[in-house]
Design brief:
38% of the residues lie in helices and 13% in strands. It has 17 helices and 13 strands. Helix 5 (125-132) links the parallel strand 2 and strand 3 (136-141). The longest helix is centred in the C-terminal third of the chain and has 26 residues, at 385-410. The protein is globular and about 55 Å long.
């Protein structure tokens, strides 16, 4: 513990000597304007962000947010500088989570040494669509290894390949996960925006804890191909950025069908909206419950009609069937994914992966084990009655008797609560400390969930969540943008050694 504190203090001191960064907190729209005016080229943006990454990633505060740089990024940017402009993302550098396939010279490893050197033959569709829109893939971000589905005692943000990602607001605190590197990198202005993935909380929690906007869209809005899987029924990619508009721009480009989510960005979107406050997620934490009440007051001042409480009738009943579903779907999905990898990759089944980790325990399991892998390996096929029942329970409890029920009963536009509690300490002895969160119902239902910066608690970022029925992204963007414009709660990180 003393060593961690000492490293945090020295890293924070180094961060105070950072040179001013001319792209600090700039939005995609501001970068686009600069590209069009000739202030920058895309090549220059890649150079500037690369220097920033070098200063923050393994030097300075040692954020370890970026696991690998794209050696072709400068050439890609130079080519885009010569091409006609395709749209708002043309020439804009973004980072991609390391469990999402990218073609070329970068690995797709889910943070695991077992997959280091695996080069996908093609981009995941979400990456291909971003490239088609003119985005420059700057590199791959670190993550909680295997998207945080390996151990109940895991440390979010740690991977065998990338080490431990730190929270840029307090270096001894966790950045949450599993999209840990994307969250820390975007918050620290290492890129214009980033892409994460979520099964349950892996976009929304690190977005909130790093003072970002992040959206987990309705499952099926984006293609799920080319993403190292956990759950076929819950996995989805999603954008993370410093503003609602930037997230809307990215989601519009990533969507399978033509979409323009920026048309929903109404600064008066909260006026007359019916919002239900979900209290039970934080009812046993008096400080967080008070914080939620303060957010509710702000919503009222912005003109929203508040129904408080408006809790899910099935609150607390979804966790057990979800866990059962994840075990079955993880084994099935990962075996299918690994089976198509080249013969030189040492893990081509979950059984192989378990054996690889045991053989390389000192590098792959120095802090926590792989009991979730063992539990998943023990499961049968997706035709098993236990899986079929658990999945049916998940659908019923999260949708018809859960989100849909409370929305219909109260005629709500969305359900609102805190996204999570404040960031916890990086603790390699005990693992993550649960500070509360609301992500499970929307994740299990496959429904959309957006989080927006809500302020700070003792120097640590807090996020407010809006979630609702399937395909309600437009409504959520309207509410989130109105909240953002009313509060302007985000502020950039200071790389402090400790929270206040």
């Amino acid at each position: 513990m003393l060593r961690r504190s000492f490293l945090g203090a020295s890293a924070a001191a180094a961060a105070t000597n950072l040179k001013p960064f001319e792209l600090e907190e700039l939005s995609i729209s501001q970068l686009r304007d600069g590209l069009r005016s000739g202030k920058w080229t895309s090549h220059k943006l890649v150079e500037l962000y690369s220097v920033r990454i070098e200063a923050l990633n393994r030097q300075g505060p040692e954020l370890r947010a970026v696991i690998e740089m794209n050696p072709d990024a400068l050439a890609d940017a130079a080519r885009l500088d010569r091409e006609p402009k395709r749209g708002p993302l043309h020439g804009v550098p973004i980072l991609i989570k390391d469990n999402i396939e990218t073609t070329g010279k970068m690995s797709t490893s889910a943070g695991s040494l077992a997959l280091e050197g695996w080069h996908a033959p093609q981009d995941a569709p979400v990456v291909a669509r971003l490239r088609a829109a003119g985005a420059v893939i700057l590199g791959k971000t670190n993550l909680s290894e295997w998207a945080n589905f390996r151990s109940t005692k895991s440390v979010s943000g740690w991977s065998g390949r990338g080490g431990q990602t730190r929270n840029p607001y307090a270096l001894d605190r966790n950045p949450s996960g599993s999209s840990s590197g994307t969250g820390a990198a975007v918050a620290a202005n290492m890129c214009a925006a980033g892409v994460g993935s979520e099964t349950d909380g892996s976009i929304t929690s690190p977005s909130a804890i790093n003072s970002l906007v992040g959206i987990k869209p309705t499952v099926g809005l984006l293609s799920g191909s080319g993403i190292v899987p956990i759950s076929a029924s819950q996995d989805t990619a999603g954008p993370m950025s410093r503003s609602v508009r930037d997230v809307a721009l990215l989601l519009s480009a990533m969507a399978e069908k033509p979409a323009d989510y920026t048309k929903y960005l109404d600064p008066n979107g909260l006026r007359g909206a019916r919002l239900g406050i979900a209290r039970k997620f934080f009812e046993n934490n008096a400080m967080m419950d008070r914080y939620l009440s303060s957010l509710s007051d702000t919503l009222k001042k912005a003109g929203a009609q508040i129904i408080d409480p408006a809790d899910l009738p099935t609150h607390g009943q979804i966790d057990a069937p979800e866990q059962e579903v994840l075990f079955y779907e993880f084994k099935d999905g990962l075996n299918r994914y690994l089976s198509r990898l080249p013969a030189n990759i040492p893990a081509r089944t979950l059984h192989d992966l378990i054996a690889y980790n045991e053989k390389n325990r000192s590098r792959e399991m120095p802090f926590f084990d792989q009991e979730l892998f063992h539990q998943a390996e023990a499961k049968g096929p997706l035709t098993d009655g236990k899986y079929v029942k658990a999945r049916a329970d998940c659908v019923r409890l999260s949708r018809k008797e859960g989100i849909d029920a409370v929305v219909a009963k109260n005629k709500l536009d969305a359900i609102v609560t805190l996204t999570s509690g404040p960031a916890w300490y990086i603790d390699t002895v005990n693992g993550d400390h649960d500070t509360g969160g609301c992500t499970t119902p929307a994740a299990v239902a496959g429904y959309p969930h957006i989080t927006v910066p809500a302020g700070f608690y003792r120097g640590l970022p807090m996020g407010i969540s809006f979630f609702g029925p399937a395909w309600s992204e437009g409504t959520l963007f309207k509410l989130a943008y109105s909240w953002e414009q009313a509060t302007h709660a985000r502020r950039q990180p200071g790389f402090a050694a400790h929270a206040q």
